[in-house]
Amino acid sequence: MDSTSTSSAYNSYSTSSMASYGSGSTNWGSSGYNDCVQQCIASFGAPMATYTPTSTSGSDSSSSGTSSGSGSTITVIVAPTQGVLRYVPFAVNASVGDTVEFVWHANMHTVTHSSELEVCNKTLDDPFTSGVQNESFTFSQVVNSTDPTFFYCGVPTHCQKGMFGIINPPNAIDSNMSVGSMMPTLVSNDSTTSAMNSYMQTVGQGSSAENWGSSIDMSNMPSEAYSLIAQNVIYTRTFLAANPDYLQDDGSVNLGVSGAPMMVPQDLATMPQVKDASSASSTPASAASSAASSPAGTAAAASGNSSGARGLAASSAVAALVAFGSAFLLL
């Protein structure tokens, strides 16, 4: 198999508005839940799985959805390990003639064409689908346009939990609707996103992976998907921080440069402790999208002067802290 090179949506942005690991400060105000999550992640972290590609992974032509194009091959991992409902990288850039090769690292997932406005619904416009497949299966698509192409996992509930991705994502480096501009608000107003971001800062403090995906433009995407998009970007950043050899100086991702086992971070969004604590919070998840759509909300989050999350009672925060910390110790 040829060396695989993934060109990713990548642009630097300032993270000064977010609390840094070890700084002793947060920008969540009085939110007991979020402070609890930050302390747990900083103290305990989460162990990572490893993945060593099998000899058949990505090389069995009989399992490929289409023939290869004339350009380079870009690899996207379908679920890096069982239970992690992500495509890695979440977004890739490809030229006409390039081949995007999807490689399954876990069982029971699909790659199905969707659209920007209906991320979790199959589109009838130039449709493609792999069907439900298992580990080591490969599915290839030749890129015939540089327009954004969305895809998702068609297994019930997987997309709704964040399992979707983009080929040639829309970009807007200086827009207030870019991932980089909106991230502080989304982190401040969604408890799961804040937990994932805290873990990312613990794993990737000082890493250039912190900047990955910042220029992705969300202005034409449905507001209810904002937090899921942010979580996908954060997971890819965490993955790249754990596997720094894959991230090149120019921002591209080359999944073929290292012969070492691949480190697979935990996906905090699927951990029961995070989901249970999140459901106990009084802030609806939709607050992230409504606040993010407001320029005033974005500015407030960037300055760190306000938070959309309400504080929990002190006893609830302590209970969540103990439960969450214990969960990490047991992993």
Description of the structure:
The protein is an alpha+beta fold and 331 residues long. It has a single domain, classed as Cupredoxins -  blue copper proteins (Immunoglobulin-like, Sandwich). Helices cover 29% and strands 11% of the residues. It is built from 8 helices and 10 strands. The strands form 3 sheets. A 4-stranded mixed sheet has the order 3-2-5-7. Strands 4-9-8-6 form a 4-stranded mixed sheet, with no helix packed on it. Strands 1-10 form a two-stranded antiparallel sheet. A hairpin with an 8-residue loop joins β2 and β3. The N terminus and C terminus are likely disordered.
Comma- or semicolon-separated keywords:
331 residues; Immunoglobulin-like; four-stranded mixed β-sheet; 29% helix; 11% strand; globular; disordered N terminus; disordered C terminus; Cupredoxin; Ser-rich/MCO-related; electron transfer activity; Phytocyanin_dom
